[in-house]
Protein backbone atom coordinates (compact mmCIF):
# COMPACT_ATOMS: atom_id res chain seq x y z
CA UNK A 1 0.00 0.00 0.00
CA UNK A 2 1.01 3.60 -0.41
CA UNK A 3 2.67 4.88 2.77
CA UNK A 4 2.87 8.65 2.26
CA UNK A 5 -0.74 9.58 3.08
CA UNK A 6 0.29 11.65 6.07
CA UNK A 7 2.73 13.71 4.01
CA UNK A 8 0.25 15.28 1.57
CA UNK A 9 -0.38 18.99 2.03
CA UNK A 10 -3.91 19.72 3.27
CA UNK A 11 -4.22 22.58 0.71
CA UNK A 12 -6.38 24.49 3.20
CA UNK A 13 -4.31 27.66 2.68
CA UNK A 14 -4.35 27.51 -1.11
CA UNK A 15 -5.25 30.80 -2.81
CA UNK A 16 -6.94 28.85 -5.63
CA UNK A 17 -8.71 26.27 -3.43
CA UNK A 18 -6.62 23.49 -4.89
CA UNK A 19 -8.24 21.12 -2.41
CA UNK A 20 -11.22 21.15 -4.80
CA UNK A 21 -8.91 19.92 -7.57
CA UNK A 22 -7.90 17.01 -5.35
CA UNK A 23 -11.53 16.31 -4.43
CA UNK A 24 -12.52 16.34 -8.11
CA UNK A 25 -9.89 13.68 -8.86
CA UNK A 26 -11.04 11.67 -5.83
CA UNK A 27 -14.65 11.78 -6.99
CA UNK A 28 -13.58 10.80 -10.52
CA UNK A 29 -11.75 7.71 -9.24
CA UNK A 30 -14.72 6.77 -7.06
CA UNK A 31 -17.09 7.10 -10.01
CA UNK A 32 -15.05 5.07 -12.45
CA UNK A 33 -14.34 2.24 -10.01
CA UNK A 34 -17.95 2.22 -8.82
CA UNK A 35 -19.47 2.31 -12.31
CA UNK A 36 -17.44 -0.65 -13.57
CA UNK A 37 -18.60 -2.96 -10.74
CA UNK A 38 -15.27 -4.80 -10.63
CA UNK A 39 -15.59 -6.66 -7.33
CA UNK A 40 -12.36 -7.00 -5.36
CA UNK A 41 -9.62 -4.83 -6.89
CA UNK A 42 -5.85 -4.84 -6.89
CA UNK A 43 -4.44 -1.53 -8.13
CA UNK A 44 -1.18 -1.38 -10.07
CA UNK A 45 -0.01 2.21 -10.51
CA UNK A 46 2.95 3.42 -12.55
CA UNK A 47 5.80 4.37 -10.15
CA UNK A 48 5.87 8.16 -10.61
CA UNK A 49 2.11 8.41 -10.33
CA UNK A 50 2.15 6.12 -7.30
CA UNK A 51 4.52 8.50 -5.50
CA UNK A 52 1.86 11.20 -5.97
CA UNK A 53 -1.19 9.03 -5.25
CA UNK A 54 -2.16 10.73 -1.99
CA UNK A 55 -1.44 14.15 -3.45
CA UNK A 56 -3.81 13.33 -6.31
CA UNK A 57 -6.63 11.87 -4.21
CA UNK A 58 -7.84 12.08 -0.63
CA UNK A 59 -8.93 8.45 -0.40
CA UNK A 60 -8.41 7.06 3.09
CA UNK A 61 -7.95 3.42 4.02
CA UNK A 62 -11.67 3.20 4.80
CA UNK A 63 -12.56 4.71 1.41
CA UNK A 64 -10.38 2.14 -0.34
CA UNK A 65 -12.07 -0.64 1.62
CA UNK A 66 -15.50 0.61 0.54
CA UNK A 67 -14.29 0.61 -3.07
CA UNK A 68 -13.06 -2.97 -2.45
CA UNK A 69 -9.43 -2.09 -3.20
CA UNK A 70 -7.41 -4.86 -1.57
CA UNK A 71 -3.89 -3.69 -2.37
CA UNK A 72 -2.03 -0.92 -4.21
CA UNK A 73 1.18 -1.97 -5.96
CA UNK A 74 3.90 -0.26 -7.95
CA UNK A 75 3.68 -1.39 -11.54
CA UNK A 76 7.48 -1.55 -11.79
CA UNK A 77 8.05 -3.71 -8.71
CA UNK A 78 7.78 -7.51 -8.51
CA UNK A 79 4.68 -8.55 -6.60
CA UNK A 80 2.77 -11.67 -5.71
CA UNK A 81 0.21 -12.82 -8.31
CA UNK A 82 -3.19 -11.17 -7.81
CA UNK A 83 -5.91 -13.18 -6.12
CA UNK A 84 -7.87 -15.24 -8.68
CA UNK A 85 -11.10 -13.48 -7.72
CA UNK A 86 -9.61 -9.96 -7.93
CA UNK A 87 -9.78 -7.57 -10.85
CA UNK A 88 -6.44 -6.05 -11.77
CA UNK A 89 -6.75 -2.31 -12.39
CA UNK A 90 -3.85 -0.37 -13.88
CA UNK A 91 -3.61 3.41 -13.52
CA UNK A 92 -1.18 4.94 -16.01
CA UNK A 93 -0.55 8.07 -18.00
CA UNK A 94 -0.98 7.55 -21.77
CA UNK A 95 2.68 7.22 -22.69
CA UNK A 96 4.20 4.23 -24.46
CA UNK A 97 6.76 3.55 -21.70
CA UNK A 98 3.98 3.24 -19.12
CA UNK A 99 1.70 1.16 -21.34
CA UNK A 100 4.64 -1.18 -22.01
CA UNK A 101 4.77 -1.85 -18.26
CA UNK A 102 1.09 -2.79 -18.41
CA UNK A 103 1.70 -5.11 -21.37
CA UNK A 104 4.61 -6.81 -19.61
CA UNK A 105 2.57 -7.34 -16.46
CA UNK A 106 -0.36 -8.75 -18.43
CA UNK A 107 1.95 -11.19 -20.21
CA UNK A 108 3.32 -12.33 -16.84
CA UNK A 109 -0.23 -12.98 -15.67
CA UNK A 110 -1.02 -14.97 -18.79
CA UNK A 111 2.12 -17.08 -18.39
CA UNK A 112 1.10 -17.71 -14.80
CA UNK A 113 -2.32 -18.89 -15.97
CA UNK A 114 -4.01 -16.13 -13.94
CA UNK A 115 -7.74 -15.87 -14.49
CA UNK A 116 -8.02 -12.30 -13.16
CA UNK A 117 -9.75 -9.80 -15.42
CA UNK A 118 -7.91 -6.55 -16.17
CA UNK A 119 -8.78 -2.89 -16.66
CA UNK A 120 -6.60 0.07 -17.67
CA UNK A 121 -7.53 3.49 -16.33
CA UNK A 122 -5.65 6.18 -18.24
CA UNK A 123 -5.28 9.85 -17.43
CA UNK A 124 -5.22 12.42 -20.22
CA UNK A 125 -6.14 11.17 -23.70
CA UNK A 126 -5.57 7.68 -25.06
CA UNK A 127 -3.69 7.66 -28.36
CA UNK A 128 -2.90 5.28 -31.21
CA UNK A 129 0.68 4.72 -30.00
CA UNK A 130 -0.58 3.37 -26.66
CA UNK A 131 -3.17 1.16 -28.34
CA UNK A 132 -0.46 -0.17 -30.66
CA UNK A 133 1.70 -1.22 -27.68
CA UNK A 134 -1.09 -3.42 -26.32
CA UNK A 135 -1.87 -4.77 -29.78
CA UNK A 136 1.74 -5.71 -30.58
CA UNK A 137 2.04 -7.48 -27.21
CA UNK A 138 -1.11 -9.45 -28.06
CA UNK A 139 -2.94 -8.39 -24.89
CA UNK A 140 -5.37 -5.83 -26.29
CA UNK A 141 -8.24 -8.34 -26.11
CA UNK A 142 -7.49 -9.20 -22.47
CA UNK A 143 -7.90 -5.70 -21.07
CA UNK A 144 -10.63 -3.06 -21.03
CA UNK A 145 -9.53 0.57 -21.35
CA UNK A 146 -11.36 3.42 -19.59
CA UNK A 147 -10.60 7.12 -18.95
CA UNK A 148 -9.82 8.49 -15.48
CA UNK A 149 -10.29 12.26 -15.24
CA UNK A 150 -7.03 13.12 -13.50
CA UNK A 151 -5.36 16.36 -14.53
CA UNK A 152 -2.81 18.36 -12.60
CA UNK A 153 -1.88 17.02 -9.17
CA UNK A 154 -1.64 19.61 -6.35
CA UNK A 155 1.46 19.03 -4.23
CA UNK A 156 1.34 22.29 -2.26
CA UNK A 157 -0.83 25.35 -1.77
CA UNK A 158 0.74 27.00 -4.81
CA UNK A 159 2.01 24.09 -6.87
CA UNK A 160 0.52 21.76 -9.49
CA UNK A 161 2.34 19.04 -11.40
CA UNK A 162 1.86 16.39 -14.06
CA UNK A 163 5.19 14.83 -13.06
CA UNK A 164 6.39 14.53 -16.66
CA UNK A 165 10.05 14.70 -15.72
CA UNK A 166 11.28 13.92 -19.26
CA UNK A 167 8.94 16.16 -21.24
CA UNK A 168 11.62 18.33 -22.86
CA UNK A 169 13.72 15.31 -23.77
CA UNK A 170 10.67 13.61 -25.27
CA UNK A 171 9.76 16.68 -27.32
CA UNK A 172 13.16 17.84 -28.56
CA UNK A 173 15.24 14.65 -28.71
CA UNK A 174 12.73 11.87 -29.30
CA UNK A 175 10.35 14.17 -31.22
CA UNK A 176 7.42 12.77 -29.24
CA UNK A 177 5.02 15.60 -28.44
CA UNK A 178 2.00 13.57 -27.33
CA UNK A 179 2.51 14.81 -23.77
CA UNK A 180 1.63 18.34 -24.90
CA UNK A 181 -1.88 17.08 -25.61
CA UNK A 182 -2.02 15.72 -22.08
CA UNK A 183 -0.95 19.13 -20.76
CA UNK A 184 -3.80 20.73 -22.69
CA UNK A 185 -6.18 18.11 -21.30
CA UNK A 186 -4.94 18.74 -17.73
CA UNK A 187 -5.62 22.48 -18.13
CA UNK A 188 -9.07 21.62 -19.46
CA UNK A 189 -9.76 19.41 -16.42
CA UNK A 190 -8.53 22.25 -14.17
CA UNK A 191 -11.03 24.59 -15.79
CA UNK A 192 -13.85 22.18 -14.95
CA UNK A 193 -13.15 23.07 -11.31
CA UNK A 194 -12.03 26.71 -11.51
CA UNK A 195 -14.18 27.80 -14.44
CA UNK A 196 -13.13 29.29 -17.76
CA UNK A 197 -9.81 31.15 -17.79
CA UNK A 198 -10.67 34.19 -19.93
CA UNK A 199 -7.13 35.32 -20.79
CA UNK A 200 -4.38 32.91 -21.85
CA UNK A 201 -0.97 34.07 -23.10
CA UNK A 202 1.74 31.78 -24.43
CA UNK A 203 5.36 32.15 -25.46
CA UNK A 204 7.25 29.52 -27.39
CA UNK A 205 6.53 26.68 -29.82
CA UNK A 206 5.59 24.08 -27.19
CA UNK A 207 3.46 26.57 -25.27
CA UNK A 208 1.53 27.33 -28.44
CA UNK A 209 0.87 23.61 -28.97
CA UNK A 210 -0.48 23.34 -25.41
CA UNK A 211 -2.72 26.36 -25.98
CA UNK A 212 -4.07 24.88 -29.23
CA UNK A 213 -4.78 21.59 -27.50
CA UNK A 214 -6.58 23.40 -24.66
CA UNK A 215 -8.66 25.35 -27.18
CA UNK A 216 -9.73 22.12 -28.90
CA UNK A 217 -10.78 20.51 -25.62
CA UNK A 218 -12.69 23.64 -24.61
CA UNK A 219 -14.46 23.75 -27.98
CA UNK A 220 -15.57 20.13 -27.61
CA UNK A 221 -16.60 20.51 -23.96
CA UNK A 222 -16.83 24.14 -22.77
CA UNK A 223 -15.81 24.71 -19.13
CA UNK A 224 -18.20 26.43 -16.69
CA UNK A 225 -18.36 30.12 -17.52
CA UNK A 226 -18.20 31.36 -13.95
CA UNK A 227 -17.03 30.33 -10.53
CA UNK A 228 -16.84 32.09 -7.13
CA UNK A 229 -14.09 34.72 -7.08
CA UNK A 230 -11.94 32.66 -4.69
CA UNK A 231 -11.80 29.80 -7.21
CA UNK A 232 -11.44 31.87 -10.35
CA UNK A 233 -8.23 32.13 -12.36
CA UNK A 234 -8.34 35.32 -14.44
CA UNK A 235 -5.07 35.05 -16.37
CA UNK A 236 -2.73 32.26 -17.35
CA UNK A 237 0.73 32.49 -18.95
CA UNK A 238 2.21 29.38 -20.59
CA UNK A 239 5.98 29.55 -21.07
CA UNK A 240 8.42 27.20 -22.78
CA UNK A 241 11.31 26.03 -20.64
CA UNK A 242 13.34 26.77 -23.77
CA UNK A 243 12.98 30.49 -23.04
CA UNK A 244 15.36 30.16 -20.09
CA UNK A 245 17.80 27.27 -19.81
CA UNK A 246 20.19 29.28 -17.63
CA UNK A 247 18.11 29.14 -14.43
CA UNK A 248 17.87 25.32 -14.19
CA UNK A 249 21.55 24.92 -15.08
CA UNK A 250 22.71 27.35 -12.39
CA UNK A 251 23.26 26.42 -8.76
CA UNK A 252 20.20 27.56 -6.76
CA UNK A 253 20.62 29.70 -3.66
CA UNK A 254 17.15 29.60 -2.11
CA UNK A 255 16.38 27.21 0.74
CA UNK A 256 13.75 25.05 -0.99
CA UNK A 257 15.74 24.78 -4.21
CA UNK A 258 18.86 23.72 -2.30
CA UNK A 259 16.88 21.08 -0.41
CA UNK A 260 15.79 19.69 -3.77
CA UNK A 261 19.30 19.96 -5.23
CA UNK A 262 21.25 18.52 -2.29
CA UNK A 263 18.81 16.39 -0.28
CA UNK A 264 16.35 15.25 -2.93
CA UNK A 265 13.26 17.14 -1.77
CA UNK A 266 10.39 15.91 -3.95
CA UNK A 267 6.60 15.86 -3.65
CA UNK A 268 6.82 17.81 -0.39
CA UNK A 269 8.97 15.26 1.44
CA UNK A 270 12.66 14.81 2.11
CA UNK A 271 14.33 11.66 3.43
CA UNK A 272 17.25 12.00 5.83
CA UNK A 273 19.29 9.60 7.89
CA UNK A 274 17.61 8.59 11.14
CA UNK A 275 20.42 10.20 13.13
CA UNK A 276 19.27 13.61 11.92
CA UNK A 277 15.98 13.04 13.70
CA UNK A 278 17.72 12.11 16.93
CA UNK A 279 19.62 15.40 16.95
CA UNK A 280 22.58 13.83 18.75
CA UNK A 281 25.03 13.52 15.87
CA UNK A 282 27.07 16.24 14.27
CA UNK A 283 25.55 17.58 11.03
CA UNK A 284 28.49 16.43 8.94
CA UNK A 285 27.65 12.81 9.66
CA UNK A 286 24.04 13.09 8.54
CA UNK A 287 23.45 11.90 5.01
CA UNK A 288 20.65 10.79 2.77
CA UNK A 289 19.79 7.16 3.28
CA UNK A 290 17.86 5.05 0.81
CA UNK A 291 17.42 2.18 3.25
CA UNK A 292 17.00 3.53 6.76
CA UNK A 293 15.69 7.05 6.53
CA UNK A 294 13.25 9.35 8.23
CA UNK A 295 10.75 11.08 5.96
CA UNK A 296 10.02 14.69 6.84
CA UNK A 297 7.09 16.57 5.38
CA UNK A 298 7.80 20.05 3.98
CA UNK A 299 4.87 21.98 2.56
CA UNK A 300 2.60 24.96 3.10
CA UNK A 301 1.05 23.41 6.22
CA UNK A 302 4.39 24.06 7.95
CA UNK A 303 4.51 27.77 8.84
CA UNK A 304 8.27 27.82 9.30
CA UNK A 305 8.89 26.19 5.92
CA UNK A 306 6.43 28.56 4.29
CA UNK A 307 8.41 31.49 5.71
CA UNK A 308 11.87 30.29 4.66
CA UNK A 309 11.33 28.29 1.47
CA UNK A 310 12.12 31.23 -0.83
CA UNK A 311 14.74 32.90 1.36
CA UNK A 312 18.40 33.14 0.38
CA UNK A 313 20.62 30.64 2.21
CA UNK A 314 22.34 33.44 4.13
CA UNK A 315 18.99 34.53 5.59
CA UNK A 316 18.03 31.09 6.92
CA UNK A 317 20.36 31.09 9.94
CA UNK A 318 19.25 34.47 11.34
CA UNK A 319 15.59 33.56 10.84
CA UNK A 320 15.89 30.23 12.66
CA UNK A 321 17.94 31.87 15.43
CA UNK A 322 15.31 34.55 16.03
CA UNK A 323 12.52 31.95 15.93
CA UNK A 324 14.40 29.87 18.50
CA UNK A 325 14.65 32.93 20.74
CA UNK A 326 10.90 33.53 20.46
CA UNK A 327 10.19 29.89 21.34
CA UNK A 328 12.56 30.11 24.33
CA UNK A 329 10.71 33.17 25.63
CA UNK A 330 7.37 31.39 25.19
CA UNK A 331 8.62 28.39 27.13
CA UNK A 332 10.02 30.62 29.89
CA UNK A 333 6.66 32.36 30.19
CA UNK A 334 4.82 29.03 30.45
CA UNK A 335 7.21 27.76 33.12
CA UNK A 336 6.68 30.92 35.18
CA UNK A 337 2.93 30.53 34.83
CA UNK A 338 3.16 26.87 35.83
CA UNK A 339 4.95 27.62 39.10
CA UNK A 340 3.11 30.83 39.97
CA UNK A 341 0.92 30.62 43.08
CA UNK A 342 -1.74 32.80 41.44
CA UNK A 343 -2.30 30.36 38.55
CA UNK A 344 -5.87 29.01 38.52
CA UNK A 345 -7.00 25.46 37.68
CA UNK A 346 -8.51 26.72 34.42
CA UNK A 347 -5.21 28.34 33.45
CA UNK A 348 -3.39 25.08 34.21
CA UNK A 349 -5.75 23.17 31.91
CA UNK A 350 -5.18 25.70 29.13
CA UNK A 351 -1.46 25.61 29.82
CA UNK A 352 -1.37 21.86 29.18
CA UNK A 353 -2.80 22.33 25.69
CA UNK A 354 -0.53 25.30 25.00
CA UNK A 355 2.53 23.37 26.17
CA UNK A 356 1.74 20.44 23.86
CA UNK A 357 1.38 22.83 20.92
CA UNK A 358 4.64 24.50 21.89
CA UNK A 359 6.45 21.15 22.01
CA UNK A 360 5.13 20.26 18.55
CA UNK A 361 6.33 23.59 17.13
CA UNK A 362 9.70 23.19 18.82
CA UNK A 363 10.10 19.72 17.28
CA UNK A 364 9.36 21.14 13.82
CA UNK A 365 11.86 23.95 14.43
CA UNK A 366 14.50 21.37 15.40
CA UNK A 367 13.91 19.58 12.10
CA UNK A 368 14.40 22.79 10.15
CA UNK A 369 17.59 23.58 12.06
CA UNK A 370 18.90 20.08 11.27
CA UNK A 371 18.06 20.51 7.58
CA UNK A 372 19.69 23.95 7.48
CA UNK A 373 22.85 22.50 9.02
CA UNK A 374 22.83 19.69 6.46
CA UNK A 375 22.59 22.19 3.62
CA UNK A 376 25.30 24.39 5.12
CA UNK A 377 27.80 21.53 5.24
CA UNK A 378 27.73 21.75 1.44
CA UNK A 379 27.19 25.45 0.84
CA UNK A 380 30.08 26.40 3.14
CA UNK A 381 32.46 23.98 1.43
CA UNK A 382 35.25 25.23 -0.81
CA UNK A 383 34.05 23.16 -3.79
CA UNK A 384 30.53 24.63 -3.64
CA UNK A 385 31.81 28.20 -3.45
CA UNK A 386 34.29 27.60 -6.28
CA UNK A 387 31.58 26.16 -8.51
CA UNK A 388 29.25 29.05 -7.77
CA UNK A 389 32.00 31.58 -8.56
CA UNK A 390 32.73 29.74 -11.81
CA UNK A 391 29.06 29.86 -12.80
CA UNK A 392 28.94 33.57 -11.95
CA UNK A 393 31.99 34.24 -14.14
CA UNK A 394 30.46 32.26 -17.02
CA UNK A 395 27.27 34.31 -16.79
CA UNK A 396 29.43 37.43 -16.98
CA UNK A 397 30.75 36.10 -20.32
CA UNK A 398 34.26 35.41 -19.07
CA UNK A 399 36.14 32.62 -20.94
CA UNK A 400 36.41 29.74 -18.45
CA UNK A 401 36.43 26.68 -20.71
CA UNK A 402 39.89 25.83 -19.38
CA UNK A 403 38.58 25.79 -15.80
CA UNK A 404 35.85 23.36 -16.81
CA UNK A 405 38.46 21.17 -18.52
CA UNK A 406 40.50 21.24 -15.30
CA UNK A 407 37.50 19.78 -13.45
CA UNK A 408 37.61 16.80 -15.82
CA UNK A 409 41.24 16.11 -14.86
CA UNK A 410 40.29 16.51 -11.20
CA UNK A 411 37.67 13.75 -11.67
CA UNK A 412 34.79 16.03 -10.74
CA UNK A 413 31.32 14.42 -10.99
CA UNK A 414 30.24 14.00 -14.61
CA UNK A 415 26.92 15.72 -13.89
CA UNK A 416 28.73 18.81 -12.59
CA UNK A 417 31.01 19.01 -15.64
CA UNK A 418 28.20 18.53 -18.16
CA UNK A 419 26.05 21.10 -16.40
CA UNK A 420 28.84 23.68 -16.51
CA UNK A 421 29.54 22.91 -20.17
CA UNK A 422 25.88 23.40 -21.07
CA UNK A 423 25.78 26.66 -19.13
CA UNK A 424 28.97 27.83 -20.84
CA UNK A 425 27.81 27.12 -24.38
CA UNK A 426 24.31 28.50 -23.82
CA UNK A 427 25.50 31.74 -22.27
CA UNK A 428 28.97 32.41 -23.69
CA UNK A 429 28.63 31.09 -27.23
CA UNK A 430 24.82 31.48 -27.18
CA UNK A 431 23.56 28.38 -28.93
UniProtKB/TrEMBL annotation:
<comment type="similarity">
    <text>Belongs to the STXBP/unc-18/SEC1 family.</text>
</comment>
<dbReference type="InterPro" id="IPR027482">
    <property type="entry name" value="Sec1-like_dom2"/>
</dbReference>
<protein>
    <submittedName>
        <fullName>Uncharacterized protein</fullName>
    </submittedName>
</protein>
<dbReference type="InterPro" id="IPR043155">
    <property type="entry name" value="VPS33_dom3b"/>
</dbReference>
<dbReference type="GO" id="GO:0016192">
    <property type="term" value="P:vesicle-mediated transport"/>
</dbReference>
<dbReference type="InterPro" id="IPR043154">
    <property type="entry name" value="Sec-1-like_dom1"/>
</dbReference>
<dbReference type="Pfam" id="PF00995">
    <property type="entry name" value="Sec1"/>
</dbReference>
<dbReference type="InterPro" id="IPR001619">
    <property type="entry name" value="Sec1-like"/>
</dbReference>
<dbReference type="InterPro" id="IPR043127">
    <property type="entry name" value="Sec-1-like_dom3a"/>
</dbReference>
<dbReference type="InterPro" id="IPR036045">
    <property type="entry name" value="Sec1-like_sf"/>
</dbReference>
Amino acid sequence: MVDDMNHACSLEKSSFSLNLVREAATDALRRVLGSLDLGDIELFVEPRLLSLFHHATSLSGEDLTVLRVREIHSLASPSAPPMPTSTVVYIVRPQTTHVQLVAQHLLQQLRGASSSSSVVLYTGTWNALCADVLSRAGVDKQVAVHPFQLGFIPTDNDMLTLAHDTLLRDCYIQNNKTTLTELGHALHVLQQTTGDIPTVHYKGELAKAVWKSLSEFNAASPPPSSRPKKLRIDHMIILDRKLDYIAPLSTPLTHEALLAELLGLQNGTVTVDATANAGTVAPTSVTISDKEGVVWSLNGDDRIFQDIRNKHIQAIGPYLHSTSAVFAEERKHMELLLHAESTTVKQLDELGTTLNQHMDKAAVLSQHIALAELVQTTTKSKSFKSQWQLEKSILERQPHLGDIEALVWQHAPVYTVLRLLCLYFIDYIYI
